[in-house]
């Protein structure tokens, strides 16, 4: 199983900022020895999950099978996708759903009407939880001690001048999220971007995911975001609670 763990760690090194990596790059990013990194990369290439030009390694589309296995085995994602498509068609704005993975959120469904971020988002994309509306909703659903541990353990750079980064400040925002049942982000993730999120709760009251609406701050400042879109999200929330 250690070999599997190392192989997954190597795959995780590749992202939009690092699409092509050398053996030395992977060794540095994973903490593996160069020999181990080389064996992992060569194995991935041999079984079709990576390819190399002799120096640089890149992942192949076969890696998508790993993510698809999760999506295909989780009926919730299909339900979320259908709900988001109806929502976005009705309001003319992009909507998304995500789950929590450590200190990050992972997009599991998305209905995009326009590109609102400088970085494109799709199913499988990851963003930090501490400064995103869905991330804060999901962190707020955890026991307070666990939420604090995850926030404290996560890198928390100030992505904009508005980003809340201090552990106590983030915890205060999470407390407010628990009380209000939703989270609004005003240009903390990226200037010009605002969003609002609510949790997806099953009939037993367990938080399974979060859904949000993201739009341009110039068109929908926080008050307008709550006024226009919170009722829409709450309607989706209620519909999902009856079927998940």
TrEMBL record:
<dbReference type="GO" id="GO:0045893">
    <property type="term" value="P:positive regulation of DNA-templated transcription"/>
</dbReference>
<dbReference type="InterPro" id="IPR029016">
    <property type="entry name" value="GAF-like_dom_sf"/>
</dbReference>
<dbReference type="InterPro" id="IPR050707">
    <property type="entry name" value="HTH_MetabolicPath_Reg"/>
</dbReference>
<feature type="domain" description="IclR-ED">
    <location>
        <begin position="62"/>
        <end position="244"/>
    </location>
</feature>
<dbReference type="GO" id="GO:0003677">
    <property type="term" value="F:DNA binding"/>
</dbReference>
<dbReference type="InterPro" id="IPR014757">
    <property type="entry name" value="Tscrpt_reg_IclR_C"/>
</dbReference>
<dbReference type="GO" id="GO:0003700">
    <property type="term" value="F:DNA-binding transcription factor activity"/>
</dbReference>
<dbReference type="InterPro" id="IPR005471">
    <property type="entry name" value="Tscrpt_reg_IclR_N"/>
</dbReference>
<dbReference type="Pfam" id="PF01614">
    <property type="entry name" value="IclR_C"/>
</dbReference>
<protein>
    <submittedName>
        <fullName>IclR family transcriptional regulator</fullName>
    </submittedName>
</protein>
<dbReference type="GO" id="GO:0046278">
    <property type="term" value="P:3,4-dihydroxybenzoate metabolic process"/>
</dbReference>
<dbReference type="Pfam" id="PF09339">
    <property type="entry name" value="HTH_IclR"/>
</dbReference>
<feature type="domain" description="HTH iclR-type">
    <location>
        <begin position="1"/>
        <end position="61"/>
    </location>
</feature>
<keyword id="KW-0804">Transcription</keyword>
<keyword id="KW-0238">DNA-binding</keyword>
<keyword id="KW-0805">Transcription regulation</keyword>
<dbReference type="GO" id="GO:0045892">
    <property type="term" value="P:negative regulation of DNA-templated transcription"/>
</dbReference>
<dbReference type="InterPro" id="IPR036390">
    <property type="entry name" value="WH_DNA-bd_sf"/>
</dbReference>
<dbReference type="InterPro" id="IPR012794">
    <property type="entry name" value="PcaR_PcaU"/>
</dbReference>
<dbReference type="InterPro" id="IPR036388">
    <property type="entry name" value="WH-like_DNA-bd_sf"/>
</dbReference>
